[in-house]
Design brief:
6 helices
């Protein structure tokens, strides 16, 4: 005899639709999820590196000054200059800053270090048009990197605590002047 099964009725209820979240709410949820993941990663890092024995670095022992050889042979020689006058001037100014030191808030400090404008002026040797061209190319190179908010070369120079970025910009300006044939 055939077996009859009672009709199985399944309730077809639709899954509840979550309310639409605003952008701020979604960002808050993502931020919370990322915070949890970063916390887990930090704990995993601590666990995985706990067995490594290291000695803390004493920052007072770190030498941040210019490196000299045991036998000081004097300042480094000037590299071969660019063939164009403005590029060569910027290259000489860069070399002067590297070897003589960089400063801020004055053209030349009591130790003889110079700011960007002071180095360009010293290397221009009184040629005002050459100096103006070099400063214009340097300002253009700075604005390409940092935007049009930079008012002048001196204000850019004085905005930094170390000369690393200003010196890099003088080197880039020398490349830019050479590429322009200046």
């Amino acid at each position: 005899m055939p077996q009859t099964h009672p009709a199985i009725q399944t309730a077809t209820t639709a899954a509840p639709v979550p309310p639409e979240l605003s952008l701020e709410e979604r960002l808050t949820l993502i931020d919370a999820a990322m915070t949890v993941k970063l916390d887990e990663a930090a704990v995993a890092y601590e666990v995985n590196t706990a067995h490594i024995d290291i000695e803390p670095v004493n920052l007072a022992d770190v030498d941040t000054g210019p490196v000299t050889s045991p036998v000081d042979t004097g300042p480094a020689p000037l590299p071969e200059l660019y063939p164009t006058p403005v590029a060569a001037l910027l290259q000489r100014a860069h070399h002067r800053l590297v070897t003589g030191g960089w400063c801020k808030d004055v053209l030349v400090d009591e130790d003889g270090a110079r700011c960007l404008l002071g180095a360009i002026r010293a290397e221009a040797g009184g040629d005002n048009s050459l100096e103006a061209s070099a400063v214009a190319v340097l300002l253009d190179a700075i604005r390409r990197q940092f935007g049009d908010d930079v008012d002048s070369v001196p204000s850019f120079n004085d905005a930094f605590a170390t000369g690393r970025t200003p010196l890099r910009m003088v080197d880039r300006a020398a490349h830019l002047a050479d590429s322009r044939g200046l």
